[in-house]
Amino acid sequence: xADGRVSVFQRGLLGELRSQWxxxxxxxxxxxxxxxxxxxxxxxxxxxxxxxxxLEDQEYVDIMLQGLSSLSPNGESLLIMAKELGxxxxxxxxxxxxxxxxxxxxxxxxxxxxxxxxxxxxxxxxLLPREWWEQLEAELSSxxxxxxxxxxxxxxxxxxxxxxxVDLMVRELKVYSNTLSPAQERKLIPILYHxxxxxxxxx
Length: 203
Known about the structure:
The chain is an all-alpha fold. The protein has helices at residues 2-37, 57-69, 78-100, 103-119, 129-139, 155-172, and strands at residues 174-176, 188-190. The model has no long low-confidence stretch (mean pLDDT 80). This is DNA-directed RNA polymerase N-terminal domain-containing protein.
């Protein structure tokens, strides 16, 4: 069917574009990190460099492309998009820290034993489920603590980190203007852009 062929073509085209965007974002991220690492920033501006080193470069690019995939066709407020990207970085970092501390493995062992207790009909019911859980925690007290450090990053840091990633996307994500209409002039155009509106006297 014709519409099926178009769909396959479009999926292939999108895959090719995403590969190009991934390469461009990866290079732009690395360049921006070098600039931040060597810049002498004033105290009023947070140096983002340490927060751009918490994950692998490829993981930041994945987060940016995921943010692009979930973007509304009508666009999104810069603040909302920046917060979303910044929060994704923080969440991935927290999960990585818990995994590296073997907290996840310990939690799995406790949960497996807890499920066995609940499923065992012959087990004495002298403890409430919550008391069983606490007892299992006490029995497996050695090793990593289950009380993780889930301290939230400051709001301005999350937004600034996300804004840095959004700026890279706006600058680097481009497509040829004649991609779907070969008869048009062929030139690179951005797929994202900032649009300013006025509310009272504020832009």
